Amino acid sequence: MAKNQENNQPELGGLDLQGQFGKTEQFVTENKKSLLIILGAVVVMGGLFIGWNLYHKSQDKEAQDQMFRAEQYFETDSLNKALNGDGNYPGFLKIIDEYSGTKSANLAYYYAGICYLKKGEFEKAIESLESYTSKDEITSATALGAIGDAYSELKKFDKAADYYKKAADKKLQNFSPMYLMKLGMIYEELKQGDKAVEAYKTIKTEYSDSQQARTIDEYIARAEAKL
Fold this sequence. Notes:
Elements: H1 2-8, E1 11-12, E2 15-16, H2 17-30, H3 32-75, H4 79-84, H5 92-98, H6 103-119, H7 122-130, H8 137-153, H9 157-168, H10 176-189, H11 193-206, H12 216-225
Antiparallel strand pairs: 1-2
Helix pairs in contact: 3-6, 5-6, 6-7, 6-8, 7-8, 8-9, 9-10, 10-11, 11-12
């Protein structure tokens, strides 16, 4: 009986634990070199990630420090200096080039796009603004609306309508009525009166306190007359 108990002791739940441990030890022994290489690679990759993250943060801080003068030029409509710098401080274009991948470079795309829009360089405005990404609803909406403005100036009304709609769909009380108004006017240009009426009526029903709502009945009547 004791012998049977001794023989059965390593087996739990139908598993031969002693046998499994032996196989594991054998596997480690046979593959020791490969396992050490893998472990070393994991350590190196972890170190590289930490190093890259620290470098990225330092780059972003440096970019922020460098970009403040360009932002000042932007606020005063000194567009060329905002884009290209003043000889002492870089403009948005250099920030984008030298600090690629940082938050500051991403924001510089937004600023550069608005600068190009104001300068009438609409293709460049679109390119810059489409490179900008943000979770901030306000700048995201204004970037989309600005792309719509650029396409509108280029007489590409279908694309303008797409971007105005995206901007309006952000549902921002202070911005959506403006983009809906632009959207309705673009639809009128495209001879799509039904869609124009829908855009205008959305202003009336969902943004009744907006400035655009004060005269929206005139726009609705005009669009309906064209149906």
